[in-house]
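User: For my dataset I need records formatted as: sequence, then structure tokens, nothing else. Please produce one.
Assistant:
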Amino acid sequence: MTKPVLYIRTGYALYLGPLHDNREHRHHLVQVALGLYHDFTLTIEGSEHKACEALLRAGVMHRVGSPDAPVCMVLFDADSSFAASVEKSLAGEVFKVFSEPMVSGKLRKVFNSEKSLPSGEELDGLVANLFGTESLNEQKKNPAMEELLEHLKSSEGKRCSAAEGAARIGLSESRMLHRFTEYTGIPFRRYLLWLRLRDAIDCITGGMNFTDAAHEAGFSDSAHLSRTFVDTFGMTMLKIFKNPDAGRFIQVIT
């Protein structure tokens, strides 16, 4: 792998690359950190741990350090079915570190520099297999939910109220919200935020500045987009998209 890659998928994101000046942060995401080639450091409340792999509960102040070697960060929305599987592995602990690889080897083979990158759909299957949850792509399609998902993806600024979404498929608002989370593995409002973040990243990699990308993707302003990005990745957009090593040539797959 010659340059960083970022996947933004339904219910999770995956970043593979070096972490330049990754600062201490906390977010709503359940996190899996994997050192594919070298160990990394995980700092929790001032205590530093060396690890090959690590699991981390949502809301914990932390920092992952790996400035020279690529590290794989898999970030699951805390309300998603993926996160529930990781939480089960944590068994009540705030975090766990591993000195021996559990799943890194499989990911290392997938992201081997001699191979083409997996598609988003291929990665979905791999993540589901690695983290022990049913692939959302393998469940029986629900025509009403699929119609709603297509409507959300095509709506301007990814803005759609729960009431509007419920009316579109003929359900009560409470029933739609329950069915939506059950079907996608992520709550309705969080899903819309994921879509906006995906759109903003697409705009930035297409050459837009941060302000224009924020407005185009439906964020109130660039500050709102920046906060969402930092909350998700623990790095500023400047570090990712204007880093002299990563540049604007980061590969983004949605």
